[in-house]
Amino acid sequence: MELTAQQLRGFNGSDAGKPIYVAIKGRIFDVSAARNFYGPGGDYCMFAGKDASRALAKMSKKEEDICSSLDGLSENEVGVLLDWEKKFEAKYPVVGRVV
Hints:
The protein is an alpha+beta fold. It has four helices and four strands, in the order βαββαααβ. The chain has a four-stranded mixed beta sheet. The termini are close together.
């Protein structure tokens, strides 16, 4: 499945009948199994329906960091992102790509 960033926003947990997706480096993960974390009111709800690559790399929940841009990340931040990506791969199915 391929989704634009705008289409991805429709999978943010606000519609209980739809899955919740979070993208990392353009790969979309179905995080619906962790609705309590990524759904409305969850600790990581701000990532739902978005590519959270930069925010995860920076360990940030700031709105301005929740994007796909990896520009200017330090080597350490890139490593942190790779760790997050491995955790997501182990826990959640990949369902598509952001185009």
